[in-house]
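User:
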Amino acid sequence: MADITGQRLRDSRLLLLLVALTAYSVLLLAAKTSADLMASWLAGHFHAIGAMDQIYPPDTDIFTMHPPSDWGPLLAARGYEGAVFPFIYPPLWVVLLSWITPFTTLEGMIWLASLLNPALMFGMVMLVMRLTNLPAEQRFLAAVTALIVLFFSVGGTIALIQNQPQILISFLIVLAIERDRANRPLAAGTALAFAAALKLYPILFIALWAAAGRWRSVRWALVIGGGLGLASLLLAGWPLHASFLQQTLLISRTAMMTPLNYGLDSLIGNLAFGSSAIPIEQYTIGSTNGVDIGWQILPKPLWRRLASVGLLLATVALPAWRIAQGKGDARFLWPLTIAAFAFFSPLSWTYYYLPLLAFTPLLFEKIPPRHLLLALSPLLVTYLVTLIHSIGSLSDNPLIHGLFLTLMTNPYAGVITMSWLFALFVYAARKT
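Assistant: Predicted structure:
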C-alpha cells in the first residue's frame, strides 16, 4: 500500500510539473513569430497555391539559409517583423501541410505547437524513465533533473521558442528506442520510420538494432519507411524531391559557423578559418535594433566532405560493433551515438542534442546522485540562467543578461557543455 501511495504521489507531482512547464513554454517562451515553424507553414502555403519554386531555398552553389524570394514580401504585407528561415524538410510534409494551411492560420498553428511541444519533451523523459532500473526513491529526482536539463538548456529553450520540428523528431527517436526495448517492434519501427521521413538521418540508427539482432524492428522500420518514401514520390512528384536533394547536397558542401551550431565543422571554422569565412546576413524583416545578426559559411572541399561522411558512418558502425560483440549497455550507446552523429553532421543545431539531454536519468544508475548533481551543477546553473532571463523584470539585470548572451553567442560555450555531458555518459557507460 505504501508503494502504491508513493507512486501516486510521484505521479501527481510529475503531472504538476508538466502543467508548470507547459505554462512556462506558452507564457514566457512561445513566440508569436516562431520562425522555424513559420517556414513549414509558408512552404505548405506556397505548395497549396501551386508556387513550386517558392518551397525550397534558391541557393545553387552554397547553403546560405536564406528563404525563397516571395516569402519576404508576403510576410511584410502581413505585418510580420523578425527572422525568416527556409524550409529544408522532405517534400511529403509540404504536401500534407498544403492540405492544412488553407484551413488554419499561422498564429493558430504556433499556439497549438506551443502546447504540444512541452508535452513531447516531457514525454521524452518519461520514456527514458521506463528504460531505467532506478530504485523508487531516486526516480523523482532523476526525472526532475532531466526535465531541468532538457527544458532549460539552450537547445531546449531555442526549440520551444521556435516550436522546432526537431522536438517531434527527437521524441520519435526516443519512442523508437523505448518501444524496441519493450519488445514492440511494430511501434518501434513505425516511430523510427516517421522520424526518418522528417529528417532522413534516423534511418541509419537501424544499424544498432541489426547489431542486437532486433530484426523485426529493422524490418518494420524499412517497410514503413519505404512506404512513406513511395507515398512522398507519388504525392509530391520527382521535381520537388530533386530540389530537396539539391539543398541536402548543398548543406553537405557548406561549413556554417554560428554559436548555435554545436558541430565539428563550426568548431574547426571558428578556430582556424574565421578570417576567410564568408559573412551571411540573416534575412530579417523589420528592425534588428542595430544588432548585426548572421553567420559565416565556408565551402567544404571534397576531402572534408568525404571525411565527414566517413565520420558519420563510423559514428554508427562503432557502437553497432560493440553491441554485436556484447560489449556495453545499449541503453547508453544509443544517446552517445545520437550525440556523436549530431556533432559530425554538416548542420548540428543545439536542439539536435535533445535526446542526449533526455537520457540524463540513466546516469543515476551508474553515478551516485550527490556526485552526479555536483558534476551536472555547471550545466544546471547556466541553464537556470535561461529561466531567470525569460522573466521580463529580470532580463535587464546586467549579470543575468551577460550570462545569457554568453550562452547564446559564444561559439564554444555550447560545444563545451555538450562535451561535458557526453563525457559523463562515456564514464557511466564504461562502468556498465
